[in-house]
Design brief:
Layout: H1 8-23, E1 36-39, E2 43-46, H2 48-54
Antiparallel strand pairs: 1-2
Bound molecules: zinc ion.
Length: about 55
């Protein structure tokens, strides 16, 4: 039995971190306005308006 190079869980975590870095300083996921990366239990990009509204 050959060892697997990438366990699925590791790949998943890597993808999330990579995604977060790409989203940093980009646009709000909800409305498309300029937003910033927020970290509140989860990494997300929100503008100020959506951040206040949905948090
Ligand atoms: Zn927004």
């Amino acid at each position: 039995m050959k060892p697997k190079e990438h366990r699925p869980i590791d790949k998943k975590i890597f993808d999330i971190v990579d995604w977060g870095e790409k989203q940093s300083g980009h646009i709000c996921e909800l409305c498309g306005n300029p937003g910033v990366l927020r970290n509140d239990d989860w990494l997300m990009v929100r503008c100020d308006e959506c951040w206040k509204k949905y948090r």
